[in-house]
Amino acid sequence: MLKSMTGFGRGEYEDEKFSATIEMKTVNHRYNEVAIRLPRFLNPLEDRIRKTILRSINRGRIDVFITADYTNDELCTIKVDKALAAAYHNALQEVADAAGLECKMAEQAEVLYLARCPEVINVKEGLFDVETIWPKLEAALQQAIGNLVAMRETEGGNIYGDFIKRADLIEEKLLQVEARSPQVVEEYQERLSERINDLLEKYNQTIEPERLLQEVAIFADRTSITEEIVRLKSHIKQFREIINMNQPVGRKLDFLVQEFNREANTIASKANDYTIAQLVVDIKAEIEKIREQIQNIE
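Now predict its structure.
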């Protein structure tokens, strides 16, 4: 099943002590890249989060946004640096003395000022039980991943339908090219015969039929596109097989579509025929549409 690389998923978990909301979005990317933004107290779980995501998503840029609250009296502690607070107080007193001020700050005002001084009050995060938090966070994470993958599969199904349509159109045009190819040689032979006969009549000369057939044979060999048609047919068959694989196929398709273009270009350059050239233009237009869609396939 084809999967798109674009999608969005959301998951939530909440109980009396812990709540988490996880949002994930993915966009096109050549490789698999995960960027996680989460509260600092969840940093010990970042590697588990990453590995869990990568088990389900094989390609694309993945942005993960996690918000969480953990209610635990032992998780955070407040520490007052008493020596530093006293040093600030003494410094304030020295400033007042140096300025010749006899008035003193109100006690409440000074306390509020000292509380805002750097490093006087420190918040220390305590350790929490990773094994207790992880199952709860994982529940929200799996919900987000499930919603994201479902969206990518839905979009992949739409792209699959478009691929089938484009492949059928290319095959249809290619059959027209194949049918037209022998006519090109026949028309060349007719034109060549007419031109030679006109010249021979003008100068009262004759030419051996074998010589004319030899020229036609050289033209037919030079303009033969049979091999290119056979290869392009094979590529179309392979394309249909790949898009039905139950695995990431974006890179395979990206390579294969380059081969589509190579064969189409060779047909156009060798055919030496306006009708075939126009058919190849149509084929290349469909190939380009496929190429653009492939950029969004996992």
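Strands lie at 7-14, 18-27, 32-37, 60-70, 76-80, 121-125.
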